[in-house]
Amino acid sequence: MDLVEFLIKTATIFSVFVLTLVIAMYSTWAERKVAGFIQDRMGPNRAGPGGLLQPLADAGKMFFKEDFIPALANKWLFIAGPSLAMLTALLASAVIPFGSTFRFDGHEVALQGVESNIGILYVFGVVALGVYGIMVGGWASNNKFSLLGAIRAASQNISYEVAMGLSLIAILMMSSSLSLGEIVAQQHGANWNIFYQPLGFLIFITCSFAECNRVPFDLPECETELVGGYHTEYGSMKLGFYLFAEYINMFVSSSIISVLYFGGYNYPGMDWVYEQLTAALGSQTGHNVATLIGTAVFFGKALFFVFFYMWVRWTIPRFRYDQLMNLGWKKLIPLAIFNIIITGAAVLFLKPVITSWLN
Amino acid sequence: MQLTNRSKQVSNKEMTLMERAYLPAIATGLAITIKHFFAKKVTIQYPEVKRYLGPVFRGRHILKRDADGRERCTACGLCAVACPAEAIQMVAAERQKGEESLYREEKYAAVYEVNMLRCIFCGLCEEACPKQAVYLRHDEFVPVFAERDQVIWGKDLLVEDMNNRYTREAWTKEEAHVLDAKRAHGEATNVVPRAIP
C-alpha cells in the first residue's frame, strides 16, 4: 500500500463516519418533521429555515444541561455506557458499500469504509456489542429500575438477534458469500433479493426494528408506561449519546436492509445508463458519474427505510413485553427456520434444474 | 344519547383469516398515517398569524373614554362589587375646576387597578358598569408577564388611547351571529362599527 492509497483509505473511512453522523443528526430533525406531518402539524420550523438548525439547537441544549453522575454510581462505567452505545452503532457503518468504485489515474477506490470479505459477520458482531452499551449503562447507574430496564432491553435485543441471524442465513445460502460488496454485486440490475426472500425480508425488518429499540419494540426506553429504562439516571449529553446511537443504528440498519434485500446501488437499466455515460463522457468520467448515480440510488433506498421507521412509529402501538417475547421466539424464529428450509431446498433442487433449462 | 354518528357496535366475533394475518391490518394503518402526511396542516404560526377570536371574546380590560375624550368611569365601585375574584380596586376622587375635559362626572377614579392574576375574565364588571366604562376587549389578550410589578394593571395601561380607539362590531352573541350570517351571504362586507352608547 503506497502513500496515496493510504491517504485515500483514511479519507474514505473518515468521510463514512462523518456522513453517518450527519445523517443521524438530521434524522432527529426528520423524525420530528415526519411526526408533525403525520399528526397534521408543521413540526420544528423556528431554528433556521424549515427548522434545519434544530439538531444544533438540541445539541446546544444538551451541552448546557447539568452533567449529573449519581453519587453511588460507578463513575467510569457510567461514562463508558453511552460511549459504548455510540461506538458500536458507528462501527457498523464501516463496511456498508455506499456505491461501486471511483476510478482515477489507475487507482480504484471503493465507496466503502473497509472492504471486508466477512462484512456481514462483522456487522452482526458489532451490533451484538451494542447490548453492552445498554447493560453497562443500566448497571453503572446503581439504580434497581435502571438495571431491570437494562436487563429487559438486553433480553429483547438478544432474542431478536437470533431471528435476525436466521433470516439472514437464507440470503447467505443464495449468495454463498459473506462480503457485503459481493452480495450487492450479485443483485445486479433489478435482480434484488427481495423478490426471492419476501418472508426473510419481513422477518429481517421486524427484527431490525427491535434491534434499534424503535416503536413498536421500544420497551427499553418507553417513558410513559415503564418510567424510563436503562437510561433513567442519564442526563445532558450522555443521554444525548444514547438517543443519538438509536438514530445511527436506524441509518445503519436501513443501509443493511437496502444492501441485502434491495440491491444497494443497483437499479433497473443501470447497464444502459453506464454505456451511455461512458460513451458520452469517456471511460473514467463516465464510470465515476455512473457510480455517483448508483450512490444516489443507494441513499434513496436507505433514507426511504429511515423514513419507514418513522412512519411505522406513528402507526403501530407499542407491544406488551410478553407479546414481544412471544413474537420473537414463537413466531419469528420458527418462520425464519422454515424460510431457511425452503431456501435450502430451492438452492439444492430448483437451481440446477433452472440453470440446466437456461443452458 | 347519541353525540356523534361515528359510534360503532362493539362485537366479540371471531376474526377472519385476513384480520388474523396481522400484516394487512398494519398496511391499512400505514396507509392511514401516510394520508395525513399530505393533508392540509391545521397549525397556525402563532406569533405571526393570529386566529380571529370572535366579537364576544373576553380579553384584556379597557376603561373607555367618551367621544370628547373624557373618562367615563365615576368610581362607583359596582364593578369591584360584582367581581367574583375581587380583582378590581379603585380610589375615588373629586373633579376639580378646569378638569371638565378630563372626566365626565364630578367623581372619578384616581386609582383604578386590576389584578391580572386574580381576574377570571368572566365579564361581570362589564355588565355591572352603569356608565359603560369598563369593557373586556375582544381583540387582545393580557400579554404574558414574568415580573411581579406587571401583575397589577393601573390606569396607565387600562384607559383608552384616543388615537387608537377601541370599537367592536357586535356586542352580543346574537348580533355576532347575525353579522356572520350576513357576511356569509355577502350582504354586509363593511360594517361600520357602532359607537358605544
UniProtKB/TrEMBL annotation, chain A:
Can you tell which superkingdom this protein's organism belongs to?
Bacteria
State the Gene Ontology terms under molecular function: oxidoreductase activity
Q: Recorded E.C. number(s)?
A: 7.1.1.-
Q: How the protein sits in the membrane?
A: Multi-pass membrane protein
Keywords for this protein: Cell membrane, Membrane, NAD, Oxidoreductase, Quinone, Translocase, Transmembrane, Transmembrane helix, Ubiquinone
Which InterPro entries does this entry report, sorted A to Z?
Answer: NADH_UbQ_OxRdtase_su1/FPO, NADH_UbQ_OxRdtase_su1_CS
> Which sequence ranges are marked TM in the entry?
6-26, 76-99, 119-141, 162-180, 239-262, 289-312, 332-354
Q: Top EC class per UniProt?
A: translocase
Pfam families per record:
NADHdh (PF00146)
Its UniProt entry gives the catalysed reaction(s) as: a quinone + NADH + 5 H(+)(in) = a quinol + NAD(+) + 4 H(+)(out)
Describe its assembly: NDH-1 is composed of 14 different subunits. Subunits NuoA, H, J, K, L, M, N constitute the membrane sector of the complex.
Q: What family is this? A: Belongs to the complex I subunit 1 family.
Know the name of this protein?
NADH-quinone oxidoreductase subunit H
From TrEMBL, chain B:
Q: Which domain of life is it from?
A: Bacteria
Q: Where does [4Fe-4S] cluster 2 bind?
A: 83, 119, 122, 125
Please list the cofactors this protein needs: [4Fe-4S] cluster
Catalytically driven reaction(s): a quinone + NADH + 5 H(+)(in) = a quinol + NAD(+) + 4 H(+)(out)
> Any idea which UniProt keywords this protein has?
4Fe-4S, Cell membrane, Iron, Iron-sulfur, Membrane, Metal-binding, NAD, Quinone, Repeat, Translocase, Ubiquinone
Domain 4Fe-4S ferredoxin-type residues, every copy: 63-93, 110-139
- Which Gene3D superfamilies does the record cross-reference, listed alphabetically? 3.30.70.3270
- Localization, UniProt: Cell membrane
This entry's comment on the bound cofactor is:
Binds 2 [4Fe-4S] clusters per subunit.
Its membrane topology is listed as: Peripheral membrane protein
* E.C. designation(s): 7.1.1.-
Q: What does this protein do?
A: NDH-1 shuttles electrons from NADH, via FMN and iron-sulfur (Fe-S) centers, to quinones in the respiratory chain. The immediate electron acceptor for the enzyme in this species is believed to be ubiquinone. Couples the redox reaction to proton translocation (for every two electrons transferred, four hydrogen ions are translocated across the cytoplasmic membrane), and thus conserves the redox energy in a proton gradient.
Q: Which HAMAP family match?
A: NDH1_NuoI
How is this protein named in the record? Answer: NADH-quinone oxidoreductase subunit I
Question: What's the source species for this entry?
Answer: Dyadobacter sandarakinus
Gene that encodes it: nuoI
